């Protein structure tokens, strides 16, 4: 089975220092925009939501600019969140794990390694714990308690034409998706690849639990996709030049087909 459309919703953004985004450039204060996205898969078994973004309160507190709130994006796409049956969480950092309550009838999939990390002793390390929100984790605990959160280990195939892969690196439970599209596979990297230049001499994204695992993840991404052009980076504003806008909004990108260069 193929998925008819694979969409990246650019819901917020901010400016960071270049050195904050590339490990090979510590202290470099040149500006680097970072886009925040979640993803929507459309097809016979869809819609499927991949990650849930953050809400307006978190945007304000963390100094992020909301440009298309997730609930508004879904409305533009004609998606009723109450009808969404499956949400896939690539990991639980704040910019991926808010708004879980927007989907009252969905089941959620998450790597067991991510759940254990987010609820383990590493959260006392401010370099790691600062990227999680206690409120988000509490909501996911409630989902786990009620049987709506399923913890998986390693590769999983929840639906035809869709496979989930544990790569680690950024967090121990970082997961990526391989989606069969009409023109071939598309790999949604999420934070396994923040920017395309991370997979090169500029170095990995510095917020990582295991930089060597992150580098191995880049190899896995390319292998899953068949070539690097079918990998969609999670936070790179270059996506807006690579992919066409959806008819509903220029903040929604159609990443179904091979990117334009």
Class based on secondary structure composition and strand pairing: alpha/beta
CATH superfamily: Ribonuclease Z/Hydroxyacylglutathione hydrolase-like
The protein's oligomeric status is single chain
Cα shape? globular
CATH topology: Metallo-beta-lactamase, Chain A
How many individual domains? 1
Count all strands and give the number.
14
- Which strand-content bin applies to the residues? 25-35%
Counted by DSSP, the helix tally is: 9
CATH architecture classification: 4-Layer Sandwich
Give me the strand/helix succession.
EHEEHEHEHEHHHEEEEEHEHEE
Query: Kindly state the mean pLDDT as a whole number?
Result: 97
Distance between the termini: 28 Å
Which CATH class applies here?
Alpha Beta
Q: Tell me the major beta sheet.
A: 9 strands, mixed
């Amino acid at each position: 089975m193929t998925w008819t459309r694979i969409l990246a919703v650019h819901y917020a953004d901010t400016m960071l220092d270049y050195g904050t985004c590339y490990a090979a450039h510590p202290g470099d204060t040149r500006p680097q925009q970072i886009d925040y996205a979640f993803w929507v898969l459309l097809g016979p078994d869809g819609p499927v939501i991949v990650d849930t973004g953050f809400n307006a309160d978190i945007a304000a507190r963390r100094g992020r600019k909301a440009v298309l709130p997730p609930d508004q994006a879904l409305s533009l796409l004609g998606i009723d969140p109450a009808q969404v049956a499956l949400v896939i969480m690539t990991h639980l950092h704040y910019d991926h794990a808010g708004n879980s309550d927007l989907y009252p009838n969905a089941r959620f999939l998450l790597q067991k390694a991510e759940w254990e990390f987010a609820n383990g002793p590493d959260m006392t390390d401010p370099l790691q714990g600062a990227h999680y929100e206690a409120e988000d984790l509490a909501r996911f605990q409630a989902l786990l308690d009620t049987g709506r959160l399923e913890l998986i280990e390693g590769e999983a195939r929840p639906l035809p034409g869709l496979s989930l892969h544990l790569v680690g690196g950024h967090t121990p439970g970082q997961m990526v998706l391989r989606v069969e599209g009409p023109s071939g596979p598309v790999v949604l990297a999420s934070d396994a690849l923040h920017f395309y230049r991370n997979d090169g001499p500029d170095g990995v994204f510095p917020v990582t639990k295991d930089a060597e695992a992150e580098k191995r993840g880049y190899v896995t991404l390319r292998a899953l996709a068949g070539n690097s052009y079918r990998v969609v980076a999670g936070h790179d504003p270059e996506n807006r030049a690579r992919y066409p806008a959806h008819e509903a909004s220029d903040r929604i990108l159609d990443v179904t087909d091979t990117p334009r260069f």
